[in-house]
Specification:
The chain has helices at 2-13, 54-75, 80-83, 88-96, 106-117, 121-135, and strands at 31-32, 38-39. By secondary structure, the chain is mainly alpha-helical. It has a two-stranded antiparallel ribbon with strand order 1-2. Helix 2 crosses helix 6 (121-135). The radius of gyration is 18 Å and the shape is globular. 12% of the residues are buried.
């Protein structure tokens, strides 16, 4: 019973620290995509913990996905480095869009995604799939 009370106390203490955007250290294993390329994991500096900051992870993933698809299509390339560029390619834009701002809320991402991400991502994915299947 004491262990249960201790666990409940520890779990309930988490939200006290949720007021700041805190990067989370992650240790996930590498995955590969349909072309055999290693999927680059979001860097620790762009990985957030806590309920209030979970949207930042999605914002980073969406921005990276959008830009990596656009870049690979513009280059006409299907090499792993083209399909999965370094995350540093979006760090400045992530900050400029305000996603890293500790005062920002998820509505910032929702607004951006509705205008910039969702209208084009499915077409970009299809075009990249076609481009890279033809390269095989």
């Amino acid at each position: 019973m004491k262990l249960l009370n201790t666990l409940i106390l520890i779990a309930s203490a988490g939200p006290v620290y949720a007021d700041t955007a805190t990067p989370l250290l992650s240790a996930s294993s590498a995955r590969t995509d349909r072309y055999g390329c290693t999927v680059r994991q979001r860097p620790d500096g762009m990985t957030y913990s806590g309920f209030r900051d979970a949207w930042r992870n999605t914002a980073a993933d969406d921005l990276y996905s959008l830009r990596r698809h656009q870049t690979a299509l513009e280059a006409g390339a299907c090499a792993c480095d083209a399909l999965w560029p370094d995350w540093s390619s979006i760090e400045e834009e992530f900050e400029a869009l305000g996603f890293a701002d500790p005062q920002a809320t998820d509505s910032l991402h929702v607004t951006w995604a509705a205008a910039e991400y969702f209208p084009v991502i499915s077409n970009l994915r299809a075009a990249l799939r076609e481009q890279c299947q033809e390269a095989d």
